[in-house]
Amino acid sequence: MFQDVLTYLESIDPILAAFYATMFTWFLTALGASFVFFFKEMNRTFFDGMLGFTGGVMVAASFWSLLAPSIAMSDGEGFVKVIPAAVGFALGALFIFGLDKILPHLHINFKETEGIKSPWQRTTLLTLAITMHNIPEGLAIGVLFGGVAAGIPEASIAGAVTLAIGIGIQNFPEGIAVSMPLRRMGMSRRKSFMYGQASAIVEPIAGVLGAVAVTFFTPMLPYALAFAAGAMIFVVVEEVIPETQQANNTDIATLGFIGGFIVMMILDVALG
């Protein structure tokens, strides 16, 4: 089945393929959000374990799917060869840092709102917090597909699809992470689901933009891959990991992180 998917995606425009791949990751977010129709609360220990898993997938994807190809496709030797990855990584982290300071949002297990002051409701702020996670994820998938369109040898459909599968897997608990808290706050199941799935709708947008940008500006691909990696690592360190440390579930969250890293590493090496 995996080979059938690759064959089909290779036969269509890579930008359209990026759209389909990021729609898949959105779908898994919506699938996770749909759990709100069956449960009102989620066990906190299980929840922290899932968040840890999400962090592990994101860190592994940042290296295996983004930084390693970025360095491999860069010209030069020694310090010169790693400069595009270093610059792109720093810019990606700074980009999310800037969003974090400007965009009003509220993390799941925290009480204080971050970003500029806003009259927006807590429900909207919670959704925006997860939406910030999804921008670099969609961008990462799109950039890889854009590399395929540009004919870069280090960028392959298999690698891009593998990254989409990994991100889709970790999007599933993210959907739950949005919809469940909203339900606990008294929102209806339907609205909780709608907010939950809406948090990932930015992924197809970022995916298509990333693919288009790299297609037209091929030399930026190493920088773009590292940019997505830097953004994802910033999200993990600044948001995901701290959210798992608010209760006494540090060990569970850590084991979840290790599990997520292993799963993504296996996917990328075995399939990509």
Summarize the structure.
The protein is built from ten helices and no strands. By secondary structure, the chain is mostly helical.
Low-confidence stretches: none
Taken as a percent bin, the fraction of beta residues is under 5%
Q: Given the helix and strand composition, which structural class is it? A: mainly alpha
What's the SSE pattern?
HHHHHHHHHH
Q: How many beta strands in the DSSP annotation?
A: 0
* Rg computed from alpha carbons, rounded to a whole number of angstroms: 18 Å
Biggest sheet, open or closed, and with what strands and sense? Answer: none
Mean pLDDT: 85
Distance between the termini: 15 Å
Can you offer a commentary on this structure?
This protein is mainly α and 272 residues long. It is 77% helix and 0% strand. Helix 2 packs parallel to helix 6 (157-184), helix 3 runs antiparallel to helix 9 and helix 4 packs across helix 9. The protein is globular. The mean pLDDT is 85.
